[in-house]
Write a structure and sequence with these properties.
With 329 residues, the protein is an alpha/beta fold. It has two domains: 140 residues, 3-Layer(aba) Sandwich (Rossmann fold); 170 residues, Dihydrodipicolinate Reductase, domain 2. Helix content is 32%, strand content 26%. The chain has nine helices and 15 strands. The strands form two sheets. A nine-stranded mixed sheet has the order 14-13-12-11-7-10-9-8-15, with helices on one face. A six-stranded parallel sheet has the order 3-2-1-4-5-6, sandwiched between helices. α2 links the parallel β2 and β3. The protein is globular, with a radius of gyration of 20 Å. The mean pLDDT is 96. Bound molecules: nicotinamide-adenine-dinucleotide. Nicotinamide-adenine-dinucleotide binds next to loops. Nicotinamide-adenine-dinucleotide (NAD) binds next to loops.
Length: 329
């Protein structure tokens, strides 16, 4: 079987988490890289040895060596880029969030179906041992149900300004928190309602950059998030990019680091071990799954439904803004 040719649409920050795993994959290669920024294309070519580089999406999608694309552009552009790739008959890996609105996400899914191409979404926690172990502990009933997952995160936010544009990136309650919405759905089941109270702290932001949101699930489980990208550069008051714990009627799960989760129950604390892995391991497994799906025609484990449902939660939270309200999903 010939190698799968992958094209990159967008050669910015996150594309660097994917590109090495295409280069090292025995059954795939980077067939072409595209970005509107010429320097980003040139840097990609220099770093990954890709011969074909272009600033034209038509040229990339017209290239017969490109079997599949990895969409790494600002979120507000995902609908345009995914639809164009689907219409060109290319299989698609699209970074999260799928889109800024459910309507757009549904149109993207329909375009992929109509053109018979696969769509995988970049919810990389599905390939991370720590998150998988956390889900396993909750589902085993070790701390009982229902549970409350508390997530607290604050910092200056990502470097590119579009992340804090309401139209292109939408701020942390869609861009960063969409990982939580997806993981909560994967672990708890479907969400039933959200409430929120959001703020904009940064003068340069027209998106909600700070606030609190609560998501309820039909299982009775709950996700509570307090999140900000409104701090000045350099501020990082919470460890890493977030602090999490999960509270249940039978105890609590704490993220202890170094390949362990600490579970406190009435019987005392227990350390639950897992094989510790790092970001590159998750991204490598995620890309390997995409290549395998393209080779075999199998549906990706994380696809349009996950993308649409996570966007539904985000869209409802953003619709509330700074006047607290409850929105049914
Ligand atoms: N999986 C994760 O954990 C994760 C982490 C970071 C970002 N992301 C997501 O990945 C996407 C990209 O984020 P990023 O951090 O790489 O952003 P970035 O700003 O670093 O890079 C975006 C790139 O897209 C290019 N671009 C802009 N308009 C374009 C167009 N019309 N055609 C082609 N290229 C264009 C820019 O020139 C830039 O190089 C976003 O949806 C973001 O939410 C996911």
């Amino acid at each position: 079987m010939s190698k799968i040719g992958i094209g990159f649409i967008g050669c910015g920050g996150i594309h660097r988490a994917h590109a090495p795993h295409v280069v090292e994959h025995p059954d795939a290669f980077i067939a072409c890289a595209m970005d509107v920024n010429e320097q980003a294309v040139a840097k990609h070519q220099e770093d990954y040895g890709t011969e074909c580089g272009t600033t034209s999406i038509e040229e990339l999608l017209g290239n017969d060596a490109v079997d599949a694309v990895v969409v790494c552009t600002p979120t507000g552009l995902h609908p345009e880029h995914v639809t164009a790739a689907a219409e060109a008959g290319k299989h698609i890996f699209c970074e999260k969030p799928m889109a800024m609105t459910v309507a757009e996400a549904e149109q993207m899914a329909a375009a992929c179906d109509a053109n018979g191409v696969l769509l995988q979404l970049g919810f990389v926690r599905h390939y991370c041992n720590e998150w998988l172990k956390m889900r396993e502990i909750i589902q085993s009933g070790m701390i009982g149900r229902p549970v409350v997952w508390r997530s607290v995160s604050a910092g200056a936010g990502p470097r590119s300004p579009w992340f804090l544009s309401a139209k292109m990136g939408g701020g942390p309650f869609i861009d960063g928190a969409v990982h939580n919405y997806d993981w909560a759905r994967f672990t708890f089941g479907d969400a039933t309602r959200v409430c929120a109270n959001l703020r904009t702290m940064k003068a340069a932001s027209d998106a909600w950059d700070t606030g609190t949101a609560v998501v309820d699930f039909e299982s009775g489980d709950q996700l509570i998030m307090c999140w900000s990208w409104g701090l000045p550069s350099g501020e990082q008051p919470t460890p890493g990019d977030a602090a999490h714990d999960i509270l249940g009627p039978g105890g609590a799960i704490l993220f202890a680091g170094e390949g362990k989760l600490k579970v406190n129950t009435a019987d005392g604390p227990q350390m639950v071990e897992f094989e510790q892995d790092t970001g590159p391991d998750w991204f490598r497994r995620q890309m390997a799954h995409f290549v395998e799906c393209v080779q075999t025609g199998a549906q990706p484990q994380v696809g349009a439904r996950e993308g649409i449902e996570a966007t539904r939660i985000a869209e409802a939270i953003l619709s509330i803004g700074d006047v607290p309200a409850v929105v049914a999903l």
